[in-house]
Amino acid sequence: MSPVLKIFVGALMMVLGIFTSIEFSNQLLNLVLGGIGPLLILVGAFIVWLESDEWKVQRQEKQEKQQKSTQFNGQQTLQEQETTQETQKDVERETREAAKEIKQAVSSSTSNGSRAEELVTSSTVQEVKEAVQNREDITAKEVLEAEKNNQNRKTLVNYLERRLD
Fold first, then answer.
1. pLDDT tens digits along 22-77
2. Which UniProt key words apply to this protein (predicted)?
């Protein structure tokens, strides 16, 4: 039976219990029948209480199912947004890399200063020091200017300034 029907039966039992309590309590012989009324009241109230709780639980389960389906749809939308954002980030990163490559290609074709700049941006401090010592086409002054314009690493700047002095 559905909870609503059980609640209705419990309420009817309560009404019958009240009616029989009033009707048969005046007669001593019918004392037993007078006791049936309060018993019906208690049983009816208990049934109403139990079934109303069951009804409440069923409504909560239905709401939880609706919330789960809403959350599932929300999660799908969130995943689609994250995928779109990741794609945008990938495109931006690839664009930056392409711009760097173009910039490096243009700068490497210009002069010694740009070779020094390329050396500074793509090498470690130790590699720059070795290049300044071993190569004649790049001077310490050019590398110092390029370093100050780009990464400005203090150890390399100090080394190059000492080398110039």
1. 777 666 556 666 777 788 888 888 888 888 888 888 889 988 888 877 776 667 77
2. Membrane, Transmembrane, Transmembrane helix
Question: What is the rounded distance in angstroms from the CA atom of residue 126 to the CA atom of residue 156?
Answer: 9
The residues, ordered by sequence, that sit 6+ positions from 146 with a Cβ below 8 Å of its Cβ are 113, 116, 117, 119, 120, 121
83 plus 139 within the same structural domain: no
CB 148, CB 159: distance < 8 Å: no
> How many domains does the chain contain in total?
2
Domain range for 59 is 1-109
3-state helix, strand, coil in the chain (%, to 5): 85, 0, 15
The helix/strand/coil state of 109 is: coil
- Are both 41 and 71 inside the same structural domain? yes
Q: How far apart are CA 62 and CA 67, in angstroms?
A: 9
Look up residue 144 and give its two tokens: 């110092």
